[in-house]
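Narrative of accomplishments. A recurring question from our advisory board has been how the design workflow behaves on a single, concrete structure rather than in aggregate. To address it, we present the structure tokens for one chain from the evaluation set, followed by the sequence designed for it. No filtering or post-editing was applied between the two.
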């Protein structure tokens, strides 16, 4: 039944001819629009993770701060996601989805704002006048020929204007991430419930399977977009005269991170437009779709079982599932709803299977959150690959592998009709092999090459007394960063000045120019030495490393659908919707929010040389590669061990429950046989159900 306010024209029941003409009364068109919107929304949500190391370099952030920034969109999302269950179908769902998408697009524009309000990026801070002086300032010059420094005005401007600008930029990005989480709140839950309400009962699993299949490509597109954008120079809209002498392999290179946010925000804004024309309610679909390929529907149903809403698992139960929370409080006010929710939460958490599955998923999600945020940076540092190449590897290998794992897990559950016990065994095997594949990762890497003047202990800063004696005639600025590499000894120097170089030579080529520094007193033979950092000795291991990571991601994703089945079959029917809602709330609070911060903090502890900005610690220049690999992979290994332990306990409990049920059935059957014997052959028991 439609009320007058539910239809755009204000009529009680729309004209059937109008319904045929208007594409906005088609649930198929809504599925198409919602697939594109969720694709764009996940692309903009995942884009920051693809450019996290670039944002660190551009604004001088530590990994802990960047991890907090990446996790901050979960704050707004978690704070409001509970109320989605309260509002349910009381609101105009398509219109609210449109408003949420508009807020996501606004957050994307806000994320790119720091680029436009900041000064142009200067990869060499030795001089603030022009580029030739920058090059000369990096060279070794006698102390007498260098003008006396004037630290007072510099410190004054640094402490006031520069520090205020830095705080403003960081504040804008944190605000944008919060708005991004708030805007994403209504998109998926309201879209799924809208499809399940008005699709034919037999078509709903197929539609939701298509929706999730398209949506899962969003993170892959985010990394692909990051790979393309980071090939462009950050100030492509305001290039300095004469161009730049950096290449994307230079450690000072900063890509056009902001451009991806503009593109993603534009895609979300375009995808949001149709939602303002969909009705609050539409006639329920009457005809079932018929395909010769029945396997497509089965696979789509399997995929839809493992995602964010239980409304996909059995179309015939859609009304029960949507009414689960409203059965508890059908007409509660918001205040009453907040009072009732904790009691229902505690009742749900008393289920041991539910609690253990959620804990296992918390461990697995912590692994995914840390890997998604910092794997590009890890590849850059460990294997000396560019940021764009690292993103393309993840977008082309890891994300598709995870998608395949989710689909295969759903197909296995559907094809073999796996019950809770077998689902638990499948989860245990997936977690076990995922853990075993993590072991070789500890040994796939190499130590940090020698860096002149930098000690290996984390936290120590270089001082004048640590530099080689060959630089005594030079006056090398301590905060300068223009690395050069001695290819013979594989020793890296922070600047040409610290290598004792007094000359500079540019070798022009067809497509690029190569810079060399000459007359270097700290280098055997005096050089020349090329500009740029030394390449890693184990760059060839990046592809085997990523293949193992991708295979592990596929095995971890294999547990996705079976673990959902354990939850949906382990709680009461009326609590299913609420159980899944509580599950995702706990995943956000316990995994997606703290895990990036935890991984970032662990990465920061492996730093051996910090850049300084306005007297504060800024971005890390160099890491201890062995320590970085052991702590990053070790943290992943720890979470995978936790997930494996939880699945093992689940299997033990399920086997114990099977034994108890078998004992009860045996006792009931023997009692029934005794009643039959006592009643005699001529009497029939009134109740013979076991």
């Amino acid at each position: 039944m439609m009320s007058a306010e539910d239809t755009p024209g204000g009529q009680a029941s729309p004209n059937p001819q109008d319904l045929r003409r208007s594409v906005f009364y088609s649930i198929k068109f809504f599925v198409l629009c919602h697939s594109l919107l969720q694709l764009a929304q996940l692309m903009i949500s995942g884009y920051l993770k693809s450019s996290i190391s670039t944002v660190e370099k551009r604004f001088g952030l530590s990994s802990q701060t960047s991890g907090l920034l990446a996790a901050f969109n979960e704050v707004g999302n978690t704070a409001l996601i509970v109320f989605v269950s309260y509002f349910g179908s009381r609101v105009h769902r398509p219109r609210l989805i449109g408003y949420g998408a508009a807020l996501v697009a606004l957050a994307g524009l806000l994320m790119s704002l720091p680029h436009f309000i900041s000064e142009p990026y200067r990869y060499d801070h030795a001089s603030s006048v022009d580029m030739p002086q920058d090059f000369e300032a990096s060279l070794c010059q006698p102390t007498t020929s260098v003008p006396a420094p004037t630290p007072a005005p510099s410190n004054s401007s640094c402490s006031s204007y520069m520090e205020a600008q830095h705080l403003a930029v960081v504040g804008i990005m944190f605000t944008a991430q919060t708005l991004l989480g708030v805007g994403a709140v209504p998109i998926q839950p309201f879209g799924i419930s809208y499809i399940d309400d008005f699709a034919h009962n037999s078509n709903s699993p197929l539609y939701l399977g298509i929706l999730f299949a398209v949506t899962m490509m969003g993170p892959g597109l985010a990394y692909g977009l990051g790979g393309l954008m980071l090939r462009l120079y950050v100030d492509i809209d305001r290039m300095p005269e004469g161009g730049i002498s950096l290449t994307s392999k230079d450690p000072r290179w900063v890509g056009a991170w902001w451009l991806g946010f503009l593109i993603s925000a534009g895609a979300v804004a375009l995808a949001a437009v149709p939602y303002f024309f969909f009705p609050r309610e539409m006639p329920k679909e009457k005809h079932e779709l018929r395909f010769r390929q029945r396997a497509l529907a089965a696979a789509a149903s399997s995929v839809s079982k493992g995602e964010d809403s239980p409304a996909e698992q059995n179309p015939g139960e859609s009304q029960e599932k949507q009414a689960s929370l409203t059965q508890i409080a059908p007409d509660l006010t918001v205040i009453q709803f907040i009072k009732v929710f904790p009691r229902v939460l505690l009742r749900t958490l008393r289920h041991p299977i539910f609690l253990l599955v959620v804990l296992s998923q918390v461990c697995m999600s912590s692994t995914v959150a840390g890997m998604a945020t910092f794997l590009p940076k890890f590849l850059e540092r460990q294997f000396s690959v560019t940021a764009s190449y690292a993103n393309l590897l993840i977008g082309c290998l890891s994300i598709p592998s995870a998608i395949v794992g989710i689909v295969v897990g759903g197909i296995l559950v559907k094809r073999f009709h796996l019950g809770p016990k077998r689902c638990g065994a499948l989860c245990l095997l997936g977690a076990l092999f995922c853990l075993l594949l993590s072991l070789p990762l500890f040994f796939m890497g190499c130590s940090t090459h020698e860096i002149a003047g930098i000690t290996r202990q984390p936290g120590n800063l270089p001082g004048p007394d640590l530099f080689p004696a060959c630089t005594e005639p030079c006056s090398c600025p301590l905060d300068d960063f223009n690395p050069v590499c001695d290819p013979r000894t594989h020793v890296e120097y922070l600047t040409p000045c610290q290598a004792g170089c007094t000359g500079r030579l540019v070798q022009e080529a067809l497509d690029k120019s190569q810079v060399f520094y000459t007359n270097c007193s700290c280098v055997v033979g005096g050089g020349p030495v090329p500009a740029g950092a030394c390449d890693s000795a184990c760059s060839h291991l990046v592809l085997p490393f990523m293949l193992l990571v991708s295979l592990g991601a596929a095995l971890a994703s294999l547990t996705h659908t079976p673990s959902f089945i354990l939850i949906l079959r382990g709680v009461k029917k009326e609590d299913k919707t609420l159980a899944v809602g509580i599950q995702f709330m706990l995943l956000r609070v316990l995994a997606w929010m703290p895990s990036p911060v935890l991984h970032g903090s662990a990465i920061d502890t492996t730093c051996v040389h910090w850049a300084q900005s306005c007297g504060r610690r800024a971005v890390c220049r160099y890491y201890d590669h062995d320590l970085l690999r052991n702590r990053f992979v070790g943290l992943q290994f720890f979470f995978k061990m936790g997930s494996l332990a939880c699945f093992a306990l689940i299997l033990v409990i399920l086997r114990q429950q099977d034994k108890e049920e078998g004992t009860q059935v045996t006792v009931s059957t023997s009692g029934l046989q005794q009643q039959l014997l006592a009643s005699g052959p001529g009497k029939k028991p009134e109740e013979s159900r076991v």
